[in-house]
Amino acid sequence: MQIVAKGLTYVYNPKSPFAGKALSGVDLTIDEGEFFGIIGHTGSGKSTFVQHLNALLRLTGGSLKVGEYDLADKKCNFLELRSKVGMVFQYPEYQLFAETVEQDVAFGLKNFRKDLDKDGVQAAVKEALETVGLDWQQVKDSSPFELSGGQKRRVAIAGVIVTKPEILILDEPAAGLDPLGKQELMQLLHSIHGGWCKTIVIVSHDMDEIAENCTRAAVFSAGKVVMCGTPAEIFSRSGELISLGLDIPVTAKCANILKRHGYVVDTDFTCDDFVKKVLALRGKEAAHAE
Question: Sign of the C-alpha dihedral, residues 83, 85, 88, 89?
């Protein structure tokens, strides 16, 4: 399903002294099959935008279509939309609530798939837990609050992907995780991506995360999209990003240092590509010296 937003606007607390414009005419297209990143400082509108994608925030201005669903249409089947567009909030483990892991993961599924019997629900929950790398027999009867932090996050994600959404949206998915935890989570998302989950959208402050994983990204500022393109295109404009109060990947910082010393590295800003290009540049310089 393709996501197409045109002139999307949103105001919190309209017609009150506390009114605040969060979106000011967002134009953005996210194609089916992308691993898409959304970047922006706090208050830029990025979280408000993604909450529109499964109608957690209802459309009030502009247009938004997600596949066949026109979110401006009051007759839009929002329940069906939400079963196909899954949302994982920041620190999703804080939203666990049921007595057992199985009950927690099954909760949303029962709302979306009332046609499933007990065995069908159990089979879907088992598959979701195994997809996120948890042992079904080991955790199904456990209290989610007794699990480790990493396991809790996996259970929370399982509770969203149990419906097999075509689009999965994650707000700061790796927040609070150590480097190994971040790596394992991204590997999980890539394993899900391209199957029944055709499109993944991540909101992130971590520019290295965006550079390493995304096919394209959009930069939000003051409620608008001010930049959109591949990570290579975006991070080559590091001066503009810094002026917006944003960070840049470590590879971009290194590339800038090398550039100041007369060495231009044509990289896509992933670590592997950057190291490869620097070594090649060093090899050419050594050959020239000989």
Answer: negative
